[in-house]
Amino acid sequence: SDVGSQKDRVVTEEEWLQKWEMGNIGFHKEQGHPLLRKYLDVLLSGRSGLRIFFPLCGKAVEMKWLADMGHRVVGVEVSEQALKEFFSEHSLPYCEEPVPEITGGKKLQSTSGNISLYCCSIYDLSSSIVGKFDGVWDRGALVAVNPCDRQRYVSLMISLMEKNSSYLLVTVSYDPNKHKGPPFYVPETEIKSLFG
């Protein structure tokens, strides 16, 4: 599979923060993603009260939707602005506390306790900090991660999953020679080799 000129492309944390500051967030879906609704039963597998992880969560509206169904939601996002916008746009009170294991890391948690959002690099997380998850909703994370970091990202995701986890992944398909990304093109063969 030809990934064009993308394999060496690197988007810095500062560039992501700038996207949020400038409001250049075309990746955010106000109504939530239709594929989550369509495949929700696959993610939940008839189970209730799950811990569901949102890697690179932004201010995804699905976090509140799943929390309202009785699930506990944990997200991670480098932009504090995105996390604060999530809570304010849903009129959710929250408290903020430092995460001692992560230099400069913060946890913003709804006062109801069912939504915990970490403000830090995803690579600062580990199961000793956030625990393990019954489900992962990866709507724009794998395709946003720098291609050179994919293996590191997937290894982290696998380490955060319980044995019976469901992992719902959304990717995009296009000619990588015509678009430099992100979102990056991740061929299906690579997804299979990454996740095994």
TrEMBL record:
Classification via SUPFAM superfamilies: S-adenosyl-L-methionine-dependent methyltransferases
EC category name: transferase
GO cellular component, one term: cytoplasm
Pfam families hit by this protein: TPMT
Record carries keyword Methyltransferase: yes
One MF term in the entry's GO annotations: thiopurine S-methyltransferase activity
Catalytic activity, as annotated: S-adenosyl-L-methionine + a thiopurine = S-adenosyl-L-homocysteine + a thiopurine S-methylether
GO term, biological process aspect, one: methylation
Keywords, ordered alphabetically: Cytoplasm, Methyltransferase, S-adenosyl-L-methionine, Transferase
Source domain of life: Eukaryota
Record field: transmembrane: none
Binding site for S-adenosyl-L-methionine: 16-27, 56, 77, 121-122, 139
EC number: 2.1.1.67
Subcellular location: Cytoplasm
Family: Belongs to the class I-like SAM-binding methyltransferase superfamily. TPMT family.
Name this polypeptide is given: thiopurine S-methyltransferase
Organism: Columbina picui
